[in-house]
Amino acid sequence: MSVYEGSVQLLRADATTLAAAGERLTFSDGGEIGREASDRDGLAWVDGMVVAKDWRLDHFARYLARQRVGMIRVDPAVAGLRLSGVFPLDDAERALKALEAALPISVTRHTQYLLWVGPRDI
Known about the structure:
Blueprint: E1 7-11, E2 16-20, E3 23-27, E4 33-37, E5 49-56, H1 57-65, E6 71-74, E7 82-88, H2 92-98, E8 105-111, E9 114-119
Parallel strand pairs: 6-9
Antiparallel strand pairs: 1-2, 3-4, 5-7, 8-9
Organism: Achromobacter agilis
Protein name: Protein FecR
């Protein structure tokens, strides 16, 4: 649980925990509560965006695929390329095509349900 504004009081039978803005609480299987700094970039999804910082291309494609109907396939030859940026979640094809200018990749739509990301022909 992350807190971005104000504070939250977590009430449990045996304890009360207060989390302030900028904090994130984690819960273990044993019931212990951990406290760490929240990731403000994680809130971008509220605005329909994703913030990628040094992500692998295959990880980015899997993240986008969760937001769409259909599949995104990434050729192993380009899967390990790294990227950073802010991208829309509602249009995976547009997000991936934006990377064509910065990475040696080509994005091809084979059907409305299949996007293929592979090496750019030189």
